[in-house]
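SAMPLE LOG
Freezer: B-3
Tube label: C17
Construct: single chain, 481 aa
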Amino acid sequence: MASKKHISYHWRLFVSLVSLLWLMAIVIALWNTHQSRRDTSARIQSQIDLINSRIVSAYEHNFDPESFLDFVGEYYLLNPLYDQIRVTVYYNGALLYKVGDMISPTEYERFSREDRGFLNELRSFFEPGGNGYTSSMTSADRRLVVYTHLPSDGVVLSATGTDMTIFAFIFAIAVGATVVGYFMSRRLGRSISQLRDFAVRAGTDTGFAPTQQFSHDDVGEISRQVVRLFNERNSMVLKLKREHNVAMHALEEKARLKRDLTNNINHELKTPVGIIKGYIDTILEHKDMDDDSRRHFLEKVREHIERLVQLMNDLSSITRLEYGSQMINLEPVDLHEVTFRAVSDYETSGMLGGMTFNYDIPTYCRVVGNEGLLTGMLNNLTKNAAAYSKGTEINLILTGQDEQFYHFAFYDNGVGVKETSLPHLFDRFFREDSGRSRKRGGTGLGLPIVMNTVEALGGTISVSNRDGGGLLFRFTLRKAK
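STRUCTURE (predicted):
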């Protein structure tokens, strides 16, 4: 059986581009024709409406409209596009003025029986779907009625018809672009074919040494860079073989850390997911459940969904701090101003509960940092104290400084934690009282985020129990010069 003939990249690219080009050309031509026809029709209709409004306006301002009708006769009837226009003006049902031969039967009942035969002949011009452009207008006192009609004769149809010039122009451009596209796609296709041949040989021949001469264009430059990377990759493979033992140890350690993190994340996700599933299953299985119970279950579902969202946000923050700290935008930040705004938000939102936040940070205490990260650090320390300290005060003070760093203390007057728990407070997902923490909505990532934030900004942090009760966090931040 003969193999299926391969269609070159050149022809596939050429056919795709040309098909898209011609489709766009046809759409543009049709749209332009439709738009031109619509604009011309709107302009004709506006001219007809203008005649009526000018006549009615003259009447309502006690001017004789006869002079304007003379203008219509002199200007419009001399214009080939409007030479068939017909204007009739009635006052109290009687014909007052007429330009052209057409009158309207709208006020049919106002005319004598002898006139109705003639009016019936003209009714078709003013019925829906009639031939031409029609407009009518009545004065405010409903005594003056104006009718204007422009039949769709050859000139009007020509003005609103299709202009073949635009089709010819677009066709010429499309043909020229097709020719240019052929030669460009052929050149690009040749370069792509060379790169494809290189990739096939590089992937199947372990001893392959590239010798192709690529074209001097963008694709050729990319191909040369690929060859360079291929050669560097071969050199790197040899180097990696010599460092195999060290690399394997590093990979195993990284895999272990990743497994631990994955297990912790799975553990933290199972509880809210299982609870959400249980509530939803209960709602679905008990279709006759009363509204209060259903609302209670849905509120519980929302509560645990919000906990999942908070967990995802915290995981995103800690990942960014650990793996993207070099990309953090560092700048001088006024820590006094950041703390002032944060405390104002805490008091407004009620996040402190029954606690008070006191701070003693000198004005213009400028540190090297990032305003968003520093605000998040204060938020996590404050949430931890408000949720678990059982104290009445939170304090943040500047305790000292040296040539490079400011030294700070953040503490509360609560109950503190067990001494055995202190070394683990910055561990991910660590909770001294897991059940209590989950009820309070904690994710176990707040304090790890604080530690990663301080370290990403070039400082250090430690935690201990205070002699007077509560937790004491000591941290440093670099001075801004």
